[in-house]
From TrEMBL:
Top-level taxon of origin: Bacteria
Entry keyword annotation includes Phosphoprotein: yes
Name the UniProt record assigns to this protein: Putative transcriptional regulatory protein pdtaR
Record-linked PROSITE patterns: ANTAR (PS50921), RESPONSE_REGULATORY (PS50110)
Gene3D superfamilies from the UniProt entry: 3.40.50.2300, Winged helix-like DNA-binding domain superfamily/Winged helix DNA-binding domain
A Gene Ontology biological process term: phosphorelay signal transduction system
Organism placement in taxonomy: Bacteria, Bacillati, Actinomycetota, Acidimicrobiia, Acidimicrobiales
Alphabetized UniProt keyword annotations: Phosphoprotein
Length: 200
């Protein structure tokens, strides 16, 4: 059961969100009415993900998302009544991995949550892989090289085998763990056609 902290200054929306999450099987470990309180809860409770309203007293959702992202605590989903591109871009730049526009439907929650969790896991896995390549003289070059390789491999899996992006990344990550190889090696095999989901 994934654990979540929510921060929303409107009490009715906060309660509705809490109830919807619990009905979907998530455990709400903290519910805050301000950004400052939400950030404190996230740092102390270390949830699996957080949902933050974009406009709150004190620290707003974007500021909290930035702090949480800097500390790499958990994935963040931004909740907003506004769907303007500028706000969405600000949320992305602050480190939010998904967003929901109010009024939301309970059915909208699961896709946003699962995308955010999957993207966060991908980012962590990439960091670990890059750390393993840290003996390379140019770590930035190694990072870019790895990202390009993984993007090409994911693209092939998505196009040829009708996988989603999280599914394609999970296949690469799982194959790397099973064969005790680096993800870059697995991605190369996917690109060359040596490794396919059908072969497993």
């Amino acid at each position: 059961m994934a654990r979540v902290v929510i921060a929303e200054d409107e009490a009715i929306i906060r309660l509705d969100l809490k109830e919807a999450l619990e009905e979907l099987g998530y455990e709400v470990v903290g519910a805050a009415s301000t950004g400052d309180e939400g950030l404190e809860m996230i740092r102390s409770l270390k949830p699996d993900f957080a949902i933050l309203d974009i406009k709150m007293p004190g620290l707003d959702g974007l500021q909290v998302a930035h702090e949480v992202g800097e500390d790499k605590i958990c994935p963040v989903i931004i909740l907003t009544a506004f769907s303007q591109r500028a706000l969405i871009e600000q949320a992305r730049d602050a480190g939010a991995l998904a967003y929901l526009v109010k009024p939301f439907q309970p059915a909208d929650l699961v896709p946003a949550i699962e995308i955010a969790i999957a993207r966060f896991a991908q980012a962590r896995a990439l960091e670990e892989e890059i750390a393993a390549l840290s003996d390379r003289s140019d770590s930035l070059s190694a990072q870019l090289e790895l990202r390009k390789l993984l993007d090409r491999a994911k693209g092939i899996l998505m196009e040829r085998y009708d996988m989603t992006e999280p599914e394609s990344f999970s296949f690469i990550q799982r194959s790397a763990m099973d064969s005790r190889a680096r993800m870059s090696e697995v991605a190369t095999k996917v690109i060359s056609g040596e490794l396919t989901p059908l072969a497993q």
